Structures are given as structure tokens and as C-alpha cells.
Amino acid sequence: MKSTSDTTVICDGSGYKVQLGSAVNLQWQAMGCAEKHERAHIADLMEICPEGCTDKEKGTPHPTGDDPRGCPPFEDKGTYAQWRATTECHGYSVEEECLVEQFKSADAQGKVAIRNRLNKHVRRSLKYWKC
After folding, report:
1. CA 49, 53, 56 angle in degrees (round to 5)?
2. In which element (H, E) is residue 119 found?
3. I need a labelling partner for 49 at 20 to 30 A (CA). Which of 3, 55, 66, 72 fits?
4. Count of alpha carbons within 13 angstroms of residue 126, beta-carbon side
5. CA–CA separation, 130 vs 55, rounded Å?
6. DSSP SS3 for 17
7. Residue (of 123, 124, 103, 121) closest to 112 by Cα position
8. Positive/negative CA dihedral, 75, 36, 62, 52
């Protein structure tokens, strides 16, 4: 089971669900964007494994934890590393777009928080995943 401090995708007994975990400690601007990041992963999982969380206990990791190879259509997506890079690029691109948009209307404190999230995590992750 994933730690409750992890911001990730889990099963809720009938489908995929976002677990915000440590994201609840972010300022309100960043929290909404972290959720959008995880929802991008849900969209990617639904494409390869729509039934992956059916009948799974609430709070359990998505179908095969961090590795979707247990889902039959996965083989069409290349290697696990390729799929993981694709879904992380998707998630971080969505999060970056969200943060940039929220930056426009944020107060001074919010702008600092958003700039920090963008520069210390999101853009580093986009570079890491070669997006």
C-alpha cells in the first residue's frame, strides 16, 4: 500500500482515485495543480487498463503499483520505461500549465510558492523525464 504521504493514484474500490498525500501541505494554488497532474496519470491508466481498479480494496495502489505491465494492452505502449516517461511528461506538463495560469492571479505569497514549485520540482522533473 502506498504511504498516505504520497501524492499518487490509488484504487477506491470501483475505479482510480487521486490520493493527495503530501500535496495537502502545499499552498492552495499548487494543490489544485498537483491533483490535475495525478488526473493526467488516471487518463493514461484508463487508456491502457480501464478495469484496473475494479473490485480492488480502497487505498490499494493502482493495478500493479508503479508498473502497469499487468494490464493486457500495455504491450502496445513499448517498454515500461517508455510508458512511465510518457505519463510523467503528461502529468508534469499539465501541472506546469496549471501553475503558470494560476500565477497570473496569485498574490505575492502565492507567486513565490508557485515559482518555487515550478523551478524546484516541475521543470526539473520535465527535464529528468526528457519531455
Report:
1. 150
2. none
3. 3
4. 16
5. 35
6. strand
7. 103
8. negative
Strand, coil or helix: what is 28?
A: helix
Q: How far is CA 47 from CA 52, 70, 72, 74, 83, in A?
A: 10, 14, 11, 9, 12
Residue 66 has pLDDT above 70, yes or no: no
Question: What interhelical angle do 28-48 and 108-117 show, nearest 10?
Answer: 40
- Asked if 19 and 7 touch (Cβ cutoff 8 Å), the reply is yes
105 falls in which pLDDT band (50, 70, 90)? very high
C-alpha cell of 43? 487518463
45, with CB counted inside 10 A (0-12, 13-18, 19+), is: buried
In the block, which residue shows the cell 499548487?
Answer: 30
CB 41 within 8 A of CB 53: no
